[in-house]
Design a protein that fits this description.
The structure is a homodimer of 187-residue chains. With 187 residues, the first copy, chain A, is of the alpha+beta class. In chain A, β4 and β5 form a beta hairpin. Chains A and B meet through α3 and α5 of A and α3 and α5 of B. Chain A binds a DNA duplex (30 and 30 nucleotides) through α8.
DNA sequence: TTTACTTTTTGACAATTGTCAAAGGAATAC
DNA sequence: GTATTCCTTTGACAATTGTCAAAAAGTAAA
């Protein structure tokens, strides 16, 4: 739990009371590789802080498996639109490694938001950082060649690349596995 | 101002006091076509609600002008990452039509957040809707052909398409103007 | 080890999209 | 109304990436 609170403390210092209320809303989870956190087509009722491990958010498009997002230690895994709207989404979440997670429910967050101003602020700041991450991802994807996208990912997330099968990296970058394999063979 | 409050009321009902404080932080602006709201490379100190008109967020990449976002009446124009981080960003914002805007400063929002819990919630909900929009845009761009992206834009934003030069639509979709022109000639 | 399964690479070819150049059109200013 | 500028289309060709198929390499289980 300290890891999660270290993450939160980067965003805001909660009061003693808020911090305890927040801690009470957390649930520790431990699952093996391959475990499904969210079934595709379901509503995302929780978000997960990853203390240890690796998760993949994905969906099936035209019969093909597409990796939408990868989250490792000290970051958050969630099907963000489904969580915010509490509506079903095609995205599912699975574990690529055995993981230790802290889950927080949508209802739990709503209760905390209503009761504690500073947790409402925390929620806002978490979504802020989500927007910043999405914008960076978007910029990478928008105007760069397949090779450029791969090399940029190498620079910024090389540790994750070696923990994930090539096909998943390829669809994450918006290219085919064959193209990525060829890019890698060239340098 | 009613238009802006109608927009806000879809997200949350502010208290009388909060509503008045928020209203006091608004500034009405009226500018001609071509006016620059934010210079590329500067820090985005304000966001703008568009009562009437059309704005374009753009940046220069490899010497080419890239349209990043288009916002029309009843929506918000902002260089989101720069606004949230208060750091410079390559994005600029300009008016594509004479426009009536309501601006809110970063500092103004911070003061309101600190004082009013419900405005902090409003801020969170506005960012939520921003992330949902970005995700939709991202999904469109990630796995669809140039033609598919154009047709989807036609379905969802046909009104904007006819108000914006083709080259700007093309870079918004991540394709060249020539390719878009050819797509359109085919149906 | 042997087998079965998954992941990665390679080849041949097709489809999509980009680049460069030039010509039409449309809008605006004088 | 003509000139000027901006916007859009078209052509020819090149570059990038995708598709389909198969082989090779790596991993895990029996």
């Amino acid at each position: 739990m300290e890891k999660f609170f270290a993450y939160i403390n980067q965003l805001i210092k909660l009061t003693e009371e808020s911090g305890q209320a927040f801690a009470a809303a957390l649930k520790r989870l431990e699952y093996p590789k391959g475990h499904t956190l969210l079934r595709p087509g379901a509503v995302c009722h929780h978000f997960y802080f990853i203390e240890e491990g690796l998760t993949r958010t994905y969906y099936i498009k035209n019969g093909k498996d597409v990796t939408d997002w990868l989250s490792a230690e000290n970051s958050i895994a969630v099907s963000i639109v489904s969580f915010l709207t509490q509506k079903p989404d095609i995205r599912g979440i699975e574990l690529l490694e055995p993981s230790v997670l802290w889950s927080v429910s949508y209802q739990g967050m709503e209760s905390l938001y209503a009761k504690y101003h500073d947790i409402e602020r925390l929620g806002r700041l978490i979504v802020n950082s989500g927007i910043i991450q999405m914008q960076q991802r978007f910029d990478d994807l928008h105007f760069a060649s397949a090779r450029g996208r791969y090399h940029r990912l190498m620079e910024t997330n090389s540790s994750i690349i070696n923990r994930v099968p090539l096909g998943m990296i390829a669809s994450y970058l918006g290219i085919t596995q064959e193209t990525l394999s060829r890019i890698r063979s060239l340098y």
